[in-house]
Amino acid sequence: NKITICAVCFRVKRSTVRASHFEGLVTTVVGYVLLAITLIVCHGLAALVRFQRSRRLLGVCYIVVKVSLLVVVEIGVFPLICGWWLDICSLEMFDASLKDRELSFESAPGTTMFLHWLVGMVYVFYFASFILLLREVLRPGVLWFLRNLNDPDFNPVQEMIHLPIYRHLRRFILSVVVFGSIVLLMLWLPIRIIKHIFPSFLPYNVMLYSDAPVSELSLELLLLQVVLPALLEQGHTRQWLKGLVRAWTVTAGYLLDLHSYLLGDQEDNENNGNQQANNNNQQARNNAIPVVGEGLHAAHQAILQQGGPVGFQPYHRPIKFPLRIVLLILFMCVTLLLASLVCLTLPVFTGRWLMSFWTGSAKIHELYTAACGLYVCWLSIRAITVLLAWMPQGRRVILLKVQEWTLMILKTLIVAVLLAGVIPLLLGLLFELVIVAPLRVPLDQTPLFYPWQDWALGVLHAKIIAAITLMGPQWWLKTVIEQVYANGIRNIDLHFIIRKLAAPVIAVLLLSLCIPYVIAVGIVPLLGVTMEMQNLVQRRIYPFLLMVVVLMGILFFQIRQFKRLYEHIKNDKYLVGQRLVNYERKAGKPSTTTHSSSVQE
């Protein structure tokens, strides 16, 4: 009876795990825990009976299981918790409910879990990057409770091995509390305030599928992979953010008399030159971007460190210091709340206002409005900073700079039309004819082509092809792309780009599009074939010619390899030796005569 009851309970638990769609994750974690407990018990028994070799082997196995379990929890479970918490706190922003998330999870559990894990991983990684930026501004020793990601003594695997399980559990719980509180402060609370102050502003329109012919998914990939990375890389965003953090720190330091605590004492820095040099070296090591794995582990586990601070710098401690620290934390929370309110409202409001002139009252995906608003805000801030830098130089210099920048903008627009407009459109249309249309449209139906969607897909394909070209061997296209990238926007060479890059690529794409069309529409009907055969040729000639080109390329490559192999075998079998004769570039007659006589001998 007991065995039957245990079997029934096991089946119920197993069915419950399967019904929850977490069978793989729960089974893995439970398996690691049971294996660790078994190894601990066996290790204790081996120590009791004094089996030294078995004890060492069990100890090594326990360390491997422990490290594997911690990696699964930190890189798998923790980002997943952060992703789900971000989604739950932002439900009102998208006019969604927990029931909608439950239905999406039941329809596609694997995709839903992966997307939430990815969002959580990005959130934790950028949190660690922001901590690195704070270390560049604040006095060494302020963030003593956070592990320095660039500390050469920091070894995540070593900490996993030596620290006990209860300390890892404590850090995990503390990390969940800290990250969850930041999400509440910067996402949930601003959404509630926005709904109270601007009731008609939310929710955001983020419908993935619509009746419009333009694919929302392709444009989202375009904005995420092309537009936003270009904004972050070329817009000096990190320098601006660092300047804002420094300005906020100086303001808070003087308001609360914590300038020495936050930024250090300037007089002490002048008197202690050696320590300042050490601190500069420490800040220089902090300029690197964190690796995803180490940054995640450090930001996740090292919220509370027991060791002393690294690179500590003394400071002046004012009266009522604990009260001032509490006020500093409150001031920081208010600043983060206001910054989140601005980031959630200003770009979207600006993008909606600008898009309304083009689309009217139609609803647009908020990703497009947010990207448009971000670019407008970036251009405005950039123009203001440039004008402020030019104003001390006088009006004449400003006019010369305006003329120079106007000419550069015109050249950039021409290059953008060719490289970001014509080439992606032709590439997307060719991809549509070669891959998409033969696979998705039957022969008895007519394929429809949308230039906007083809252009969006062409931009992604052009970016992928450019990345593969830069990683590949040296040839003319790689040389030209590297030269254009090295020149930059300020030294842009319009004639070189058109003659060496745009014209050859456009010619190849046009020939790839036109030659199959001329063959299918102009030559095949002259052969007297049926309409079905003409339709078949028109629909399948593009993938057929692609297959022919690929096979010809492979054939020529193999022929060249066989020629090299033949020359290598022939040289190894018949070539006796190799010797340089008359290698001197401009030698005199006596030396040449002597060398010739020696050769004859």
TrEMBL record:
One record GO biological process: ERAD pathway
Record GO terms (molecular function): ubiquitin protein ligase activity
Highest taxon in the source lineage: Eukaryota
Primary site of residence: membrane
EC main group: transferase
Domain E3 ubiquitin-protein ligase MARCHF6-like C-terminal: 397-570
Catalysed reaction equations from the record: S-ubiquitinyl-[E2 ubiquitin-conjugating enzyme]-L-cysteine + [acceptor protein]-L-lysine = [E2 ubiquitin-conjugating enzyme]-L-cysteine + N(6)-ubiquitinyl-[acceptor protein]-L-lysine
Tagged with keyword Transmembrane helix: yes
Residue spans crossing the bilayer: 29-51, 63-86, 114-134, 172-194, 214-232, 325-347, 367-391, 412-435, 455-477, 501-529, 541-559
EC number(s) stated in the UniProt entry for this protein: 2.3.2.27
Keywords assigned by UniProt, alphabetized: Membrane, Transferase, Transmembrane, Transmembrane helix, Ubl conjugation pathway
Locations listed in the record: Membrane
Keyword flag Membrane: yes
InterPro entries: MARCHF6-like_C
Topology versus the membrane: Multi-pass membrane protein
One Pfam family this sequence matches: MARCHF6_C
Pathway assignment: Protein modification; protein ubiquitination
Gene Ontology CC: one annotated term: endoplasmic reticulum membrane
Protein name: RING-type E3 ubiquitin transferase
Organism phylogeny: Eukaryota, Metazoa, Chordata, Craniata, Vertebrata
